Amino acid sequence: MYEEFFGLKEAPFSLTPNTSYYYGLPPHQEALEVLKTALQEGEGFIKVTGEVGTGKTLVLRKLMNADWSWDYEIAYLPNPYLTASEMRMALARELGIENLSSNGELSVTDAINRRLIEIHQEGRKVMVLIDEAQDLPDETMEAIRLFGNLETESEKLVQIVLFGQPELDQRLAQDRFRQLRQRISFSYSLRPLNLPETEAYVNYRLKVAGYSGYTLFTKSAMKRLWRSSRGIPRLINVLAHKSLMLAYGKGNGRIKSSLVRYAVADTPDAQKGGRNGSRWLILTLLLLLAAFLALLHEGLLL
Fold this sequence. Notes:
Elements: H1 3-6, H2 26-40, E1 45-50, H3 56-64, E2 72-77, H4 84-94, H5 105-121, E3 125-130, H6 138-148, E4 159-164, H7 167-172, H8 178-183, E5 184-190, H9 195-208, H10 219-229, H11 233-250, H12 257-265, H13 277-297
Parallel strand pairs: 1-4, 1-5, 2-3, 3-4
């Protein structure tokens, strides 16, 4: 909608994790260093937690695409809502084991064990990445713990990385998960961005998207963006995208604090205090104007 107006080749603040926009922010780089160290040390269980929108999935994808990841057979389990049996089948498929539909659970487990030994004999390792681990059913959590026990005399046959929201820590603190909790030797908690990191993040994404003009967000606008988003990258993206839409609708070539304020009013998770009816009306009219101008530009209203 606003790309041509700002000289962009694409929208810079998509919510879909895109490694081409990876900036190497300190929290993400620190998480990757912890993961790399733990994996090289041969640890069986590793945990990365963070609030919604802090970039866990982006870190996971960077881990999968790391230069040294060729040493590993990587099994990615993005869906945590699996029974123990379904998890075993999903892991088997990720490891390239086929024709298991007619076998029982014990046969599936045995097949996975054999495959893990084969990979080990090939001189490679197995890394299992589990996203949204806070939602794993209890029985599945226990099945994962048992797989983490598989080892030779000198090293683990499989290394498991759990990515989850802070609720994962709350679950693991329960007594029934103490065995799994004690096996997690490396952990990292993703923190929100500070103001300089937020400014660098926004400007970098604009540059990757093709922007080459003067600083688009004023200092006051950037400060409001950071404060209202609480430094959470996903919220930063949402507010920056809406601010660009509003600037385009008003024909403004630069984004001031007032436009970010309107974007905040339209974003419940970033909204502070009560809603102001007049601000909501103005925001709605501006968004409608932006949409009208976009359609007019594309010739759809001729």
